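Hi all, posting the design record for the shared folder.

TITLE: backbone redesign
STEP: 1 of 1
STRUCTURE INPUT:
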């Protein structure tokens, strides 16, 4: 089953409640929330208070993508703010702190994921794979919506699909960056099952149709 996770980074933040209501009614599986700290990535977006506000507004799954330095410092607070799935970057912390952060999220009763940037090989996730609910392959350099899909990420998605099937088949494989009706079939073919899409959903007037088009592409 293919899941679509619209990224609210491309939503109108002045009307976030209605934007979220539209994608929820429009068939979004997860609401993808991009948190950026201006250090791990060269952009600043939103944080804990916004996650808390969204949580009050919807019972839908909040997929919180932390693009922040040393995420172990903050994962507990994102869980308490209402994240259902907390995803952070393998490049952003020391291995012992990544293990600790994974443990913290699980202890809070939430699902946990690890993400890798385009230059990071799939094998970096190997030590953590058995513990994960989700692995995220960035298909653009993290930091901004609206960038072009990096097609040289396809072999990495295939490699990770093989690793997941062999070692933790319940783990989801998410892709993020440049996903639209053209690129969706490529990542599905490579083995992704959760597709994040920001601009391809929010630039369309009919968000339900955009979500459906990506799911069925
Ligand atoms: C990029 C973010 C993405 C972004 C995707 O750093 O992690 O989730 O919003 O936007 P599109 O789909 O426009 O590439
Ligand atoms: Zn994201």
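Okay, here is what came back for every position:
SEQUENCE:
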């Amino acid at each position: 089953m293919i899941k679509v996770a619209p990224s609210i980074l491309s939503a109108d933040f002045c009307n976030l409640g209605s934007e979220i209501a539209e994608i929820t009614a429009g068939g979004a599986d997860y609401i993808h929330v991009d948190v950026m700290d201006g250090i791990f990535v060269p952009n600043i977006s939103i944080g804990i208070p916004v996650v808390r506000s969204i949580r009050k507004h919807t019972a839908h799954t909040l997929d919180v993508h932390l693009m922040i330095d040393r995420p172990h410092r903050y994962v507990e607070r994102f869980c308490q703010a209402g994240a259902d799935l907390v995803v952070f970057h393998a490049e952003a912390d020391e291995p012992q702190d990544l293990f600790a952060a994974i443990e913290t999220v699980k202890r809070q009763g939430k699902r946990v994921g690890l993400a890798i940037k385009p230059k990071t090989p799939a094998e970096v996730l190997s030590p953590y794979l058995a513990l994960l609910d989700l692995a995220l392959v960035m298909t653009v350099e993290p930091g901004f919506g609206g960038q072009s899909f990096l097609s040289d990420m396809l072999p990495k998605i295939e490699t990770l699909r093989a690793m997941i099937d062999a070692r933790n088949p319940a783990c989801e494989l998410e892709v993020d960056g440049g996903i639209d009706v053209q690129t969706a079939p490529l990542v599905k073919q490579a083995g992704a099952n959760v597709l994040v899409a920001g601009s391809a959903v929010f630039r369309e007037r009919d968000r339900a149709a955009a979500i459906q088009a990506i799911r069925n592409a």
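COMMENT: DSSP finds eight helices and eight strands in the chain.
Let me know if anyone wants the other runs.
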